[in-house]
Design a protein that fits this description.
The protein is 25% helix and 31% strand. The chain is α+β, with helices and mostly antiparallel strands.
Length: 131
């Protein structure tokens, strides 16, 4: 697999379209950090890291509106790809839907949202957009 982050985002996207409750993804540190950010910002219901096999598994409980069953994530989009990396300085960090969405940024101080990176005045690689 050439792009495991795109695989994570695609599994979440496909799980939401199929109305699944839980999605399983092979684990890595970057994927764990992305999952933690999605949980902190309220885009997923819960997550669980399991150390099965050599790599481990991340179980992600997807979040829907209780009455209308509309997913919490409207769109999740990979920005920086292995073939074309996208970097942004702290003044050039993108605003997603006028601040309603988030961009996950990989900085020298770890993964964080575009708002946190802007507050700390650090730029980095724009991994994905979520809204």
């Amino acid at each position: 697999m050439t792009d495991p982050i795109a695989d994570l985002l695609t599994r979440i996207r496909n799980g939401l379209k199929a109305k699944h409750k839980v999605v399983e993804v092979p684990a890595s540190n970057m994927k764990k950090n992305i999952t933690k950010i999605l949980f902190e910002k309220g885009y997923i219901l819960n997550y669980k890291f399991e150390d099965e096999g050599p790599q481990g598994i991340i179980k992600i409980a997807l979040k829907y509106h209780p009455e209308t069953k509309v997913p919490a994530i409207k769109e999740i989009q990979r920005i920086s790809k292995p073939g074309l990396r996208k970097y942004a300085g702290h003044e050039d960090l993108p605003r997603i839907l006028n601040g309603l969405g988030i961009a996950i940024v990989s900085t020298s101080q770890g993964l964080m949202t575009n708002k946190e990176a802007k507050m700390r005045n650090i730029g980095g690689e724009v991994v994905c957009y979520v809204y």
